[in-house]
Amino acid sequence: MKTFLIPASMLVFCVAAASALAAPGTVLRNDKLYSQPSASSKVAANVPKGASVDIVAKQGGWLRVTSGTSAGWIRLLSVRAGAGGLGGAGLGDVVGAATTRSDPSRVVAVAGLRGLNDEDLKQARFNGAELAKLNAWQATPAQARSFAAQAGLKTADVAALPAPQPAQTSSSPWEDN
Amino acid sequence: MKRKLMVLAISLVSFSGAATALDFGKLLEQGINQELNKGKQTQPDASQSAATPPAKQKIDAGQLGFALFGDYSPEEETRIGRQIAGNLLGAVPLVRDDKLQHYVNLVGDWVAQQSGRKDITWHFGVLDTEDINAFAAPGGYIFLTKGLYRRLNNEAELAGVLAHEVAHVTLKHHLKVLKQSSLIGALGQAASNRAKSSDQVVQNLIGNGAEIMARGLDKNAEFEADRVGIVFAARAGYDPWGLPEVLQDLAGLPAKDSRTSLLYKTHPLPADRLAALGEAVGGRLDAVQGKDLPGRFYRIK
User: Fold this and answer.
1) CA B83/CA A126 separation, integer angstroms
2) Which domains does chain B have, with CATH numbers?
3) What tens digit of pLDDT does each residue of B98-127 get?
4) How close B72 gets to chain A, by Cα (Å)?
5) Residues 276-295 of B with CB under 8 A from A
6) H or E stretch at B249
7) Could you give the maximum distance between any two Cα atoms of chain B, in Å?
8) Which residue of A78, A115, A174 is in closest CB contact with B262?
9) Nearest-neighbour CA in chain B from A88: distance (Å)
10) ipTM
């Protein structure tokens, strides 16, 4: 887990850290490996849904992966981090095994941290003092615009994404569960 | 055989006799049940409601404080959201870090400005828990946990998470859930007529505490918020891959991590969200050039 996260944050500054990344991933749909992080570049290979890959680098919406003897760039949204194939829980089971099951102290640490649950939320009583703090921290639209401009953020004309077609294949995630 | 029929007939008569003595609340309940069962299979005991016509015309939305069959006004929406937010803050306080909270509000409001909704005031807060989650309440009340914030690497990822929640608000996902439950809530109010203050009316509507935040939404609402949120973040000038990167990070977490148990009770798994988003995005965002802003990202001490 950590071996993936720490280099992932470094990558933001340094794509050359690629070889240190090598995190397992699973392909989510049939897609292509391109020679460059661009759909207009040459197709290096095809990878099927469910294939295991090693993620070695990231650039924008692209991941550089190796799959068997092939290597290339695949769309970020066509892969999920973590091994275990598509049939599993969809979470990093293998990575999890390394951090929890093989390390008893870690198991205790995680189990001891009882998270938010239904009962906490159900029993919750209105807290006006906290709500007043929330109001005090609120930013005005003008402040937000100025903060965005300071970092050179400019609004972009991006079209809405289409809703999925209702008549998709039965393997569509929209019809599962 | 004949005796049995007789007994049945008598019990039916006595039952319908009781039914005529029922008050307005019962009438309303039947009307509401009909409303809720629209499109569903008729229940086997429908003969009862057939004996008593639905009392649709008797529901006085104005008296109840909130429209049952119309839309909530922005003021009503804000009152509902304020109550849910105040209750949620009763379960988890805000992180005591002025710089963090102000930073999140600046980023969040900028993202929310791309949503096109100008009739509400947006509020953002970081909750003091190591749980990994984010919440949206109607009226523009948005929260993420310290546990989730710690996992973020840059401002684009923060913008992506907040944009998903902003999308829930602009798409009025929770209000649609409340619309369903308000039909039930109205029953209690009308029957008891004990809703003294307007806060009580709102609380009756949202149920116990902040339990609506634990109930979650339809998974298609989550996929929709991902699809709409990613566009809000891109329109704000951010790298659109912030939200997918957060989902990738969560996909790599151990399955049994207790910090994500509520998150996965109320959301589809990250792999399913990535796959659904991948179908919608395809190559449509290839030309978008956004900013990550890792340098400006505020890091919790």
Assistant:
1) 7
2) 1-58 (no CATH), 74-174+212-281 (3.40.390)
3) 999 999 999 999 999 999 999 999 999 999
4) 22
5) 276-281, 283-286, 288-294
6) helix B242-251
7) 86
8) A115
9) 10
10) 0.74
Answer yes or no: do A121 and B88 touch at CB < 8 A.
yes
Residues B204-240 pLDDT 10s? 777 777 787 877 788 999 999 999 999 999 999 999 9
Predicted confidence (pLDDT) at residue B66 exceeds the cutoff of 80: no
Q: Is the pLDDT score of B57 beyond 60?
A: no
Q: What gap in Å lies between CA A18 and CA A14, rounded to an integer? A: 8
| Lowest-pLDDT range of A111-125, B28-42, B236-250 | B28-42
Task: Tell me the chain B residues in contact with residue A177 when contact means C-beta distances shorter than 8 Å.
Answer: 219, 268
A165 to chain B, closest Cα gap in Å: 10
10 Å Cβ neighbour count for A48?
Answer: 10
Of B208, B238, B274, the CB nearest to A80: B274
Cβ count near B8 (within 10 Å): 10
What are the structural domains of chain A? 2-112 (2.30.30.40)
| Interchain contact, A116 vs B92, CB within 8 Å | yes
* H or E element that contains B165: helix B155-170
Judge: A172–B90 Cβ closer than 8 Å, yes or no. no
Q: Which residues contact B284 (CB under 8 A, 6 or more apart)?
A: A159, A161
